[in-house]
Amino acid sequence: MTDKPAGFGHPSHKREIWAQLLESGAYDSFLKNMEINEGVFPAISDSGVGSMPDQLVMFYLNRNFRMGVDKYEDTSLLGKTSDNRICVMMVFPNSSSINSPVHREKKEDEQLRSFFDLSGVLTVRPLANSNCRMGVTIKGGNNMEHHNHNDVGSYTVVLGREIMAGDPGSIPYTANIFNTKYRYTYKTIGSYGHPEKVRPLSQIALLLQRRVSLKRQSLPVVNGNKNRKTGLS
């Protein structure tokens, strides 16, 4: 006999994680502030080019967490077929139905930039009604993330609604795409497929020199002298 309610352990744990995440504002803040400009979002890691938050989900979050983003109040249910579970939930009364819309004016600093310190993602954008229409997202962080791409330092540049240069996002999953032996042989997952800063030739030469030096140190000594089996000396 167990003293735990059958089947409720994991859901209870997940509920607490989500409660803490939502209370901190991290969840809804990330979704609404990832937008670069004019409805364009960056395709980082395994998201795809053209990806954006579901409008019905954003309506739900906007009402429940008092986000105050006006454009998510104009969401229509007509023609929505992307996720029938969300569509059915929103057709019938739910927790967002009892909340009236709110309006919150963003401060200038909030309009100009959004920085997510845990993931190291910075987005900068023009002010509303500005003559400038260019926005940029830069990906920092590290290469030890879930669904990781070697994309530290990559960027997405947007002019109006057009991506001028950016992360290619995901590719169709294959049988070995999460196998570490093969994962980074896919060019769009390795650094080759990402817009990143190019090292100066002097740095590249120094790296190559270090690699040769390390390789020499790892090779066996022949006849007690410094000559190596490879002919390097």
Report how far apart the termini are. Answer: 72 Å
Helix content: 25-40%
pLDDT average, as an integer? Answer: 78
What Rg, in angstroms, do the CA atoms define?
25 Å
Count of separate DSSP helical elements: 6
Shape: globular
What is the structural class? alpha+beta
> Using DSSP, what is the number of strands?
5
Number of domains: 1
Q: Spell the H/E element sequence.
A: HHHHHEEEEEH
Share of β-strand residues: 5-15%
Strand order of the largest sheet: 1-2-3-4-5
Poorly predicted ranges: 224-233
- Major sheet attributes: 5 strands, antiparallel
Topology:
Layout: H1 9-24, H2 26-33, H3 55-64, H4 84-91, H5 108-112, E1 113-116, E2 121-124, E3 134-139, E4 155-159, E5 162-165, H6 201-218
Antiparallel strand pairs: 1-2, 2-3, 3-4, 4-5
Brief characterization of the structure:
The protein has helices at 9-24, 26-33, 55-64, 84-91, 108-112, 201-218, and strands at 113-116, 121-124, 134-139, 155-159, 162-165.
Structure report:
This protein is of the alpha+beta class and 233 residues long. It has one domain (9-193). Helices cover 28% and strands 10% of the residues. It has a five-stranded antiparallel beta sheet. A hairpin with a 4-residue loop joins strand 1 and strand 2. The longest helix is centred in the last third of the chain and has 18 residues, at 201-218. Mean pLDDT is 78; it is low at 224-233.
